What we know:
CATH class of the largest domain: Mainly Beta
Oligomer: single chain
Amino acid sequence: MFCNGDESCEETSDGCIHSGDPCSDPTPVCDEDFDKCIDVPLTCDSIITPSSAEVVSGEILSFTVAPVDEGNWENCLEPDYKWSVQSNIGSVIDDAGKYTAGINFDFSNKATDVVRVADKANGVEAEATVLVSLCALVQIYGESSKEVELLRKFRDKVLTQTPEGHEIIRLYYQWSPAIVQAMEADEEFKEVVREMIDGVVEVIEGKAE
């Protein structure tokens, strides 16, 4: 073992004689995993950004991962990240950390997802928490409706192409939970919102023809 220093083993002896810890100042810490002397205890932990978030059903969020201590990262193995999400509402995450919230049909309570990234090379793991509220469009039309499908395609293929479109997406997701609560409490308000969105759907359908 590296941290035992020089070893001498005889077949007739009961064991091996070693010279002891080979490390001293300015690198007094012996790291057996990497067979080297370092100046501070090695940490290969990572952190997920954002570490917490609140989204609505169907919203897409990109997570990134970075070392906690970049100063020691050169002593770590090349990371081998594997993303996963613990979810009761069907949320998913791909190999690049792109998370898509599932559908939370509970009007009153937010669902809690736990996003995890495991670094298999260094044996460490980090996690983030995501709270998911119901999407206003899903409450109005239903998850599998043609209106929701059309509006999601419009979001992904049109709105995401411009800064103004991204701002519209941001505002929608910002205000959607409050709109859902208001519609749940006031059926007439829900009808007003539906009429407004119906008009938007008609315009989009007209442009697509």
